[in-house]
Amino acid sequence: MTNDVKSVIAKTAPDELFDHNLVAGTVMPGVLYEKRPAKTPDGVLAEGLYNAWITLDNPKQYNSYTTEMVKGVILAFQKASNSRDVVAVVFTGVGDKAFCTGGNTKEYAEYYAGNPQEYRQYIWLFNEMVTSILTCDKPVICRVNGMRIGGGQEIGMACDFSIAQDLARFGQAGPKHGSAPIGGSTDFLPVMIGCEQAMVSGVLCEPFSAHQACRLGVIMDVVPALKVNGEFVPNPLVVTDKMLDDFGRIIHGAPKTGAALREGKALLKRGEVDLSRLDEKVEELCAKLLMTFPDCTTKTLEELRKPKLESWNRNKAGSRAWLALNMMTEARAGFRAFNEGTRETGREIDFVELRQALAKGTPWTDDLTEALMPRAKDDS
């Protein structure tokens, strides 16, 4: 900072600044908030400027967000948005397994299932979390350190930029587990990847690789994370060169099969996950954002967010009402099945039996829900 700028600050900056945050403090249990020094593109520290890192800290449950964590994310984004010395926000998760897998299924199954009035209040908080990302005055970067699934995919797509390590997987889970991806995915996916691919992701719930996510436009960049014998290698479980299948379709990022998959799994076991490349790429983007006019950047964000934000604001109230009522029927069964199931029994209901029951006009009763829970197969 030059002496001329310092003298202007000394003459004009007020002695005391107002605090525009609603409440004191920034986080709840399960959410970390940290200001890290900002750097220029050539690595020089920018004195007095920072990037705010908001980190989901629930790795034992794949960084799924509890009710208290949702509150923490809202407060953290409000603080970052209001902080005059913050250049950009980095939104990420603890560890290398998951950015976020969505709402906390244990909490959903054991508290909200069968309690639509309670879930309705929870969804108000969830909606505020998504809105706090979409309206943050600072650019928001999703540092995808692992799986970004379900509600995790939704809050990730609310961010402005996403950079992923290439072992990460992306996707939706709603129709497989008793819900619909109306916490943002049905608003954002058609805008980001087009209607047809949005149908594939939202309805079929088939996960896709970070390489596919980059090709589709869900993320801006992907970096290797697996180190074998001290060297970074691409994700060995997916096709990482731009091959075509027998029909001429691009299969870059598609899962490997057969012998190639077995070889990939063996290589994966031999390696270790190193997220240093991911951190370098995130810091590089933060440095680029530093070198812009702040108000012009904020206005550009507001304009470019409009397609996502307009769809989100148009639908979130109706989605909230539907999600609450659904806790009496399919969500009640789906979340319980996931929570109570095991690797042996599976974590999904028997969809054929459910459809057969509904085809006969069977009402949603406690008996039907119990009958749908996953159980060990009877070999007799």
Descriptive account of the structure:
The protein has 380 residues and is α/β, with parallel strands linked by helices. It folds into 2 domains: 19-225 and 274-326, Alpha-Beta Complex (2-enoyl-CoA Hydratase, Chain A, domain 1); 345-380, no CATH class. It has 16 helices and 13 strands. It has helices at 3-12, 67-82, 105-112, 116-134, 151-157, 174-177, 185-193, 195-204, 210-216, 258-270, 276-290, 294-304, 306-326, 330-340, 351-359, 366-372, and strands spanning 31-39, 45-56, 86-93, 98-100, 140-144, 147-149, 161-165, 169-171, 208-209, 221-223, 226-228, 231-233, 272-273. The chain is globular and about 80 Å long.
Helices and strands, with pairings:
Layout: H1 3-12, E1 31-39, E2 45-56, H2 67-82, E3 86-93, E4 98-100, H3 105-112, H4 116-134, E5 140-144, E6 147-149, H5 151-157, E7 161-165, E8 169-171, H6 174-177, H7 185-193, H8 195-204, E9 208-209, H9 210-216, E10 221-223, E11 226-228, E12 231-233, H10 258-270, E13 272-273, H11 276-290, H12 294-304, H13 306-326, H14 330-340, H15 351-359, H16 366-372
Contiguous runs where pLDDT drops below 50 for at least 5 residues: none
Described by strand count, sense and barrel closure, the largest sheet is: 6 strands, mixed
Q: What is the succession of H and E elements?
A: HEEHEEHHEEHEEHHHEHEEEHEHHHHHH
Judging by the overall fold, what is the CATH architecture of the largest domain?
Alpha-Beta Complex
How many structural domains in the coordinates?
A: 2
Strand content: 15-25%
Instruction: State the share of residues found in helices, binned by percent.
Output: 40-55%
User: Given the helix and strand composition, which structural class is it?
Assistant: alpha/beta
CATH superfamily of the largest domain: 2-enoyl-CoA Hydratase, Chain A, domain 1
**Kindly state the mean pLDDT as a whole number?**
93
Q: What is the name of the CATH class of the largest domain?
A: Alpha Beta
CATH topology descriptor of the largest domain: 2-enoyl-CoA Hydratase, Chain A, domain 1
The number of helices is: 16
C-alpha geometry: globular
Which oligomeric state applies? single chain
Side-by-side strand order of the widest sheet: 1-2-3-5-7-10
What is the rounded Rg?
A: 23 Å
Distance between the termini: 79 Å
Strand runs, count: 13
